[in-house]
């Protein structure tokens, strides 16, 4: 017996193996495509089943509005607190001239640093 004949006897018939190999890629392709369609169906079904109620939307909008109001109140309170800090006009002019910033910016940073010129200069430089 030749080697080819021995392989046929060991492995079975070659014709059956080739026929099965031809079917497998086609089946694999269909299975692969069907799996993707099934995944897509699951995703779209879930999205369609979930509904958003008007009450939920109104609640979310109200929460955003409340949060914005709190942030505005905190900002206004901070600005009032900063207005109480005494700063010298010479200090503001020094910062303006040395770092070439606007008067409003120099005054704001100086007030945030409680009137400390050196700390205000460092704060402007570090930003």
Automatic annotation (TrEMBL):
The protein's name in its UniProt record: Huntingtin-interacting protein K
Chain segments carrying region Disordered: 1-41
GO biological process: negative regulation of apoptotic process; protein stabilization
Source superkingdom: Eukaryota
One Pfam family cited in the UniProt record for this chain: UBA_HYPK
Positions with biased composition (Acidic residues): 1-22
Database matches in InterPro entries: Huntingtin-int_K, HYPK_UBA, NAC-like_UBA
Basic and acidic residues: compositionally biased ranges: 23-41
Nascent polypeptide-associated complex subunit alpha-like UBA domain boundaries: 85-125
